[in-house]
Request: fold
Amino acid sequence: QVQLVESGGGLVQAGGSLRLSCAASGSSFSTYAMGWFRQAPGKEREFVAGISRNPLDTYYVDSTKGRFTISRDNAKNTLYLQMNSLKPEDTAVYYCGARGPSYYRASRNADDYTYWGQGTQVTVSS
Reply:
């Protein structure tokens, strides 16, 4: 098992930046493919970005390409999401998820993730 704890959310003006962190404990972090998802009020959980066991293998939803960067530091057991040029439509609770440990690649489907953090709120004001 792996336990996940997100941090780094907050209130920011449009055009600003935030960096989210997801600290993992328990089983070996490096054996999990990881993903960031978000959920706005009244909406389903949406894929934002994913990273495979190979940290160079990353995926993004079209609306975040060029603005968000997902990365992982296996030595620190931590997943990151650098968010730049934030927009009001990025407002949501952001969750990190762990897929595996038998899966190599991340998935865009939330149902494919076994472990989730509690979420961190990101609010972007216009």
